[in-house]
Design brief:
Elements: E1 3-11, E2 40-41, H1 43-53, H2 67-72, E3 86-88, E4 91-99, E5 105-109, H3 111-122, E6 141-144, E7 158-160, E8 163-167, H4 172-186, H5 191-200, E9 201-204, H6 206-215, E10 218-225, E11 232-242, E12 248-255, H7 265-274, E13 280-281, E14 292-298
Parallel strand pairs: 5-9, 6-8
Antiparallel strand pairs: 1-12, 1-14, 2-4, 3-12, 4-5, 4-12, 6-9, 7-8, 10-11, 13-14
Helix pairs in contact: 4-5
Amino acid sequence: MMKARLLFVHALSPLHAGTGQGVGVIDLPIAREKATGLPYLPGSSIKGTLRDQFEPDEDAERNRDTLRVRIFGPETNRADEHAGAVQFTDQTLALLPVRSMAGTFAWVTSPYVLRRLARDAGGAEVTAPPDSVPEPSAVEQCVVTEASKLSYRDDGKVYLEDLDLTPDTGQAGGASDWARWLGERMFVGDEQWREMLMGRFCVVHDDMLSFLLNTTTEIAARVKIGDDSKTVVKGGLWYEESLPTETVLFGLTLAFPNKQTRLTDDEIFEHIAGELKRPLQFGGKATVGRGLCRVVLAG
């Protein structure tokens, strides 16, 4: 029987998980779910990057028993021999960093995102999240924690970009519970970062999050310089979208032991967690520092 663990991806630099050429103003947009519009990092990116972290299978024809092959499956030329023992779902948005007048920035989420996270956590080996989900009663409202640093000192409102939101103080306890639960899994053993999350956690209306997702992602203009002229080549200007630094994504990691693997579920997770002690690179534009992420396997 399969077992699952929650996986958190915390962007340490802008993350460009693209879909190829765009049709709008942005030439290279990020990948988004069709129905919800939530950005995501494909599970194939997680699997491919982690596979490369394990010892290489230099002689694919003779060496068929490396830990890399046992966990992730054989190389392409003999992929029909047996399946891999681990799967990764797409990592979808958990927390979006948004510039704030107080507290520098807010980690923004919404009721739908939290319910989706709770649903996935229900199928994973992790302590259950809080039962109730904070929910602003109006688009102009938000819910912050009891220790929030986001409320502006003059009028007590929360200013995200050019939006002013009124905190719903009656649900501050629920927001604190969620911030505490997330911090214990995202920042294991790091009290300072847990406090940062507690002070910057903010739940907005689902409609407000949809608006922020269309206006607060990072857009960079890139150019291609000619080798001889040292000027921009014709057609060498494009716009590229990325998820900003401090974005947090979540998904599931599932273990499927088989007779070729000769590993238990816990051993598979232990080997994967061992490769997550240093940052990994996901998505495109690695040569310009994009996609450096901290990855945490919760449970």
